[in-house]
Structures are given as C-alpha cells and as structure tokens.
C-alpha cells in the first residue's frame, strides 16, 4: 500500500461518523447504489454462502412503509437518500451448488474441489440447528454491513447504522418471508447535512492482551 492510498484509507475509516440528518436534495442513482452494494459484498462469509440480502428503500412509498417501523429514527428515514434494510437468509445453503458451479465455470476452482466443498456444506447444514445458523449468518451480515459503511464513505456518502426498529414486522412489510429472512440492521445513507459527533474509543492497551 503506498503512502497516498494509506492516507486516504485512514481518512475513510477514522472520518466516518453516524449521521442523523442528511441533505434531502442529494439522491443516489440505482447504478451507483448497485456499485456500492457490489463492492460491499466482496466481504468474506462462512463457506462463501453470502447470506446477506438487501432492501434499498429510497422511494416516498417505501419510506412511508418504513417510518412506523422505525419511528425513533424518523429524521434518518425522512432525510437520507435511502435506507438499506439488511437481512440474513436462513436458507443460504440452498444456493451452494449455484455458487460453486459458477466458481468452476469462471475458472476459479477445479471441479474436484467444488465437489468436496459442496458435499461438505450439505453435510454441515443438513441437520444444523436454527440457532447455530443464526449465529453464522448474523456474523457474516455484520461483516458486510461494516464494509458497506466504508464503501459508502469511499463514494463520498455518510451512513448511520440503526438497530432500533420493529424487527418483528419489517420482513413482511417489504414482502419477505419473516421465518426465512432475519433482520440484521437498517443503514441510512446520504450526504450529511450536519456534522456528526466524533466519539471516544478506549486505548488499545485497555482492551488488548498480548500473550
């Protein structure tokens, strides 16, 4: 990593703020949002099963549906360019063969490795308890959410992760099966209309042991 790139990267990371009021005149095109999501989904996931699913809520109708479900975050919903609802798919293993077949087709994996991986994954998830799957897909979706925030920042946008909303009803409100799709978080995105507060972090020697 050269010096300029490292400087830019640290500005992206350390300059991130949780923004609650956005410039309502700033919109994000579908093409750019697609690019942001594509870049975010280069995040790692367990066995490359990519359990994350997104609902991009950027229309007036979509925000009207979201508002009563996220009433404690009204300003973010109303002023942001979009709110991205991140879900995790309990049935992500259904796509195992599609994922690994595509890897073979693109020359990224030999067929014999594909066969071993697919058989192993089928064995793991055949009788896996739902709670174990939940732990895995929440971890993976947390990774993509953090990467999404950093990618948005690299595109010149600000974000705010939102955990306070009606998780019980949000899947059905946007046409998803509530037993299949686990709500992870909401993420507002847009251009900040006011500066967010810089927050305090513990020093590393307070939170780290060296062995």
From TrEMBL:
Keyword Zinc-finger among UniProt keywords: no
Residue ranges of every copy of the Nitroreductase domain listed in the record: 13-191
Protein name: Nitroreductase family protein
Cited CDD domains: MhqN-like (cd02137)
Pfam families (alphabetical): Nitroreductase
Family, per entry: Belongs to the nitroreductase family.
Keywords: Oxidoreductase
Keyword Repeat part of the UniProt annotation: no
Gene3D superfamilies membership: NADH Oxidase (3.40.109.10)
InterPro entries attached to this UniProt entry: Nitroreductase, Nitroreductase-like
């Amino acid at each position: 990593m050269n010096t300029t790139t490292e400087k830019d990267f640290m500005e992206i990371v350390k300059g991130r703020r949780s923004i609650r009021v956005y410039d309502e005149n700033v919109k994000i095109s579908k093409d750019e949002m697609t690019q942001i999501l594509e870049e975010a989904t280069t995040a790692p996931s367990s066995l490359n099963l990519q359990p994350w699913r997104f609902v991009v809520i950027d229309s007036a109708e979509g925000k009207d549906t979201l508002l009563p479900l996220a009433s404690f975050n009204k300003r973010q919903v109303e002023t942001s360019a979009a709110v991205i609802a991140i879900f995790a798919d309990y049935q992500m293993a259904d796509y195992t063969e599609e994922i690994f077949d595509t890897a073979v087709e693109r020359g990224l994996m030999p067929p014999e490795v594909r066969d071993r991986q697919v058989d192993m994954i089928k064995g793991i998830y055949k009788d896996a308890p739902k709670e174990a799957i939940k732990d895995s897909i929440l971890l993976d979706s947390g990774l993509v959410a953090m990467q999404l925030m950093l990618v948005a920042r690299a595109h010149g946008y600000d974000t705010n992760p939102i955990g306070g909303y009606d998780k019980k009803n949000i899947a059905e409100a946007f046409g998803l099966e509530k037993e299949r799709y686990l709500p992870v978080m909401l993420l507002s995105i847009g251009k900040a209309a006011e500066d967010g507060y810089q927050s305090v972090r513990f020093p590393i020697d307070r939170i780290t042991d060296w062995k």
